[in-house]
User: Fold this.
Amino acid sequence: MIQHIPWHGPHYQEGIEGQRICIVGYSHPWGRGGKDSPNATKQIVSGVINGTEKIRFFSQVRRYFGFEDNAAFWNRVIFFNYIPECVGGPDDRYKRGTAEQVKHAKARFLSLIQRDRPHKVLVFTKQGWSTFPATREEEATGKNPPVLSLKRFPDSSRGTYDAGGHIVMAFGLRHPQYANSLLMRRAVRQILDKPAMKRKP
Assistant:
């Protein structure tokens, strides 16, 4: 199985408002050459920054954080897709990962957050979030609490992970294609305003 190397912005440690932020999508389709590559994610985000790739997902997420410039935003975050390899060609862009891919995705996610120790992970895929490793809250109560109290935003939830004593806050949000932009901006603002948890209580 190919494992896509995450995009690691050069200003990730500086972050956004002093917080290390990780953005997670669901999957990539094969590129123009019809082949997969470990560098697929890095090439796509580099293309978004230099203007050779026009992908709505990336521009929408950037706007949710209040940034107008791709380089200013994407160079401050980590980004990877939950499924660690391409799911197929352009017609398969909405295809779910196989059981094997999801198994690898869970282990890879936990490994990456332990390595990079983000303060907050924003998961812009309901499809992916539903198969994430269980959070500490799920293990304790069987469910995750909502991100917002807004009745019009029912599909958001949150939880935490223990990454070697560093507590990572994770937020499950809708994919930009299906989300209300105003509500998403409000959700991101609320997430950024939450105090980060720096160590295991």
Summary: The CA atoms of residues 16 and 123 lie 16 Å apart.
